[in-house]
Amino acid sequence: MVHGVKLVTPDNAQATPGRTSLYAQHDLCFHLQVYHDFSLGRRCLARLRAVFPEARVLLISDGDDDPRWRDLALRNQAHYVRGERLYELARGGAIVRRMLELFLAQPGRWLIRIDTDTRLHRAFRWLPTGPCVFGTLEHRTVGHGEPLVPPCVQGGFMGFTREAATRLFSSGVFESPLLATDPLGTWADTHDTRERASHGRVSFDHLVRYGCRTVGLAVAEFDEVRSLWRGRIDNRGLRFAATHPHKLWWQWPGLTLSLWLARLGRRARAFLAARQA
After folding, report:
1. Which of 14, 42, 153, 203 is the most buried (most CB within 10 A)?
2. Same structural domain for residues 49 and 100?
3. How many independent structural domains does the chain possess?
4. How far apart are CA 244 and CA 1, in angstroms?
5. Cα–Cα nearest to 137, from 263, 30, 229
6. How big is the CA angle at 181 (ends 160 and 143), to the nearest 5 degrees?
7. Domain co-membership, 263 together with 142
8. Whole-number average pLDDT of the chain
9. What is the domain extent for residue 206?
10. Residues contacting residue 265 through CB under 8 Å, at least 6 positions apart
């Protein structure tokens, strides 16, 4: 641990990262992907612009043709891309490749991917330097509690230094057809991700985890932010510059149900295994 940052390399070894407090807003590029969540997206973009009025913002529609997105982007000086739906398993790593390609077309020093229910509170006091992906590290899966070695950067806030984005993109790792045809042999190496693949969808977080592992890229715990799959975060005194999640009240029951079903499935499999033993 060095000044609040711990790097974890693909073999789980620790390394000393760089850091800087010297940056301009135009050094930052925020990537906000949207899909049938206009209310959340509008609120997120308003908070983002209140904190970072001069940062570059990419607003990417992942197959959502709602015309309000284009108007929202114009009002907030964001670059709007009406993209196709890439979360389907058949598209493999295309969803990550699209983000990296758009960023590298006009690269800043950092790429920051956020969800529509991520909230920006203040500017970052510092940022990591050197080739790494940074954010809140998950060391166990949410549904089944399996260890994650190496850990996964939680997708509500996922930062990439320019060096990291360049290495991932130029490696071609997200172009591999195996990400679609053999998910269990590539990115889906846990019960949680195998279940997601079985439902015909990819996981952005775990595609990035697989990419980092494949190219030998380190991930870093970044204590300026706190991003969880679910739960409340105490941010009194603005300890964190960004927090996640901040979903609308009516979205929580669906998330709770999905986690409950995943845990029920785990208990059912354990029961059947015990009966067969």
Report:
1. 153
2. yes
3. 2
4. 23
5. 229
6. 60
7. no
8. 89
9. 5-246
10. 195
Q: How far is CA 64 from CA 56, 68, 83, 221, 224, in A?
A: 22, 10, 8, 32, 32
Whole-structure pTM value: 0.87
Residue with tokens 């964001």: 78
Over residues 35-63, the mean pLDDT reads: 97
Together in a domain, 116 and 241: yes
Q: What is the pLDDT of residues 232-255, one digit of tens each?
A: 999 999 999 999 999 775 444 554
- Contact between residue 95 and residue 207 where contact means Cβ atoms under 8 Å apart: yes
Whether 233 and 226 have beta carbons less than 8 Å apart is answered as yes
Instruction: Please calculate the CA angle 200-206-208 and round it to the nearest 5 degrees.
Output: 120
From 2, 42, 38, 31, select the one nearest 19 (Cα to Cα): 2
How far, in Å, CA of 229 to CA of 45, rounded?
Answer: 20
More confident residue, 48 or 255: 48
256/216 same-domain check: no
* Length of the chain as a residue count: 277
Return the structure tokens found at 2.
């060095």
- How far apart, in whole angstroms, are the C-alpha atoms of residue 226 and residue 221? 10
What residue has token string 């850091």?
19
> Could you tell me the two tokens for 201?
């969808």
β-bridge partners, 62: 83
Judge if 73 and 127 occupy the same domain. Answer: yes
> How far is residue 249's CA from residue 264's CA, in Å, rounded to a whole number?
24
Strand partners, 8: 14, 219
Give the dihedral sign, CA 261/263/267/273.
positive
Can you point out the beta strands (E) in the chain? Answer: 5-8, 14-15, 18-20, 28-34, 56-62, 79-83, 110-114, 119-120, 127-129, 132-140, 147-161, 218-222, 225-227, 242-244
